[in-house]
Amino acid sequence: DIQMTQSPSSLSASVGDRVTITCRASQDISIYVSWYQQKPGKAPNLLIYAASNLEGGVPSRFRGSGSGTDFTLTISSLQPEDFATYYCQESRDTLFTFGPGTTVDLK
Amino acid sequence: QMQMLESGPGLVKPSETLSLTCTVSGVSIDTGGYYWAWIRQPPGKGLEWIGRIFYRGTTDYHPSLMSRLTISRETSKNQFSLKLRSVTDADTAVYYCARSNEGYYGSGSYGLWGRGTVVTVSS
Questions:
Q1: Nearest residue of chain B to residue A40 (CA atoms)
Q2: How many beta-carbon pairs below 8 A join chains A and B?
Q3: Alpha-carbon distance B54 to B28, whole Å?
Q4: Which 3 state secondary structure label does DSSP give B66?
Q5: What is the chain A residue with the closest CA to B104?
Q6: Is the peptide bond before A8 cis (omega within 30 degrees of 0)?
Q7: Contact at 8 Å (CB) between B51 and B41?
Q8: I need a surface site. Which of A37, A41, A94, B116 has the fewest CB within 10 A?
Q9: What is the pLDDT of residues B63-85, one digit of tens each?
């Protein structure tokens, strides 16, 4: 089974900061990675699919990169509405495993 | 506007069957290229993919749930459903239905979600 890890598990940042979240897969998954944002009490919202493709309607300050085992989600300039938990998810196999999440809160 | 809405009992007794339905509006579940999935989130924890049904009716299940799980669809009502048998408190979670994106790389990502429904397993 493919395992997904994320780092850090949480981070504190200020509005305007550049934020980087890393996701690592336990084996090569090509570009089969998606990123989601989830706010408390809400369903996840797809940000990025196929490692670097921005989902329609998602602001361009969100960028995904990587391939193989190492992936990154970057928020270029953190906005107040971006404080949330972020999950990566693999789709290389039919387990569709999610990472444990990274919580971004206000410094 | 496309919407998905989960419905079902909020409380299920241990050893009984959890049954949920997802009602889809704004798009037909027969529309080619999409997978219709169930994903859950235990309280305070991360997301777990449960299973999916393809627009043609074929299914994939998480191996850890396969022996207890059935996902089916009723196209006349534009609904798909989940039945999870012999539940324990480990099945307590928010259950989401979701639709995949299209395409070779998109089909593993979920761009449309229901708001989720809380299911508690307790006697």
A1: B44
A2: 66
A3: 12
A4: helix
A5: A50
A6: yes
A7: no
A8: A41
A9: 999 999 999 999 999 999 999 99
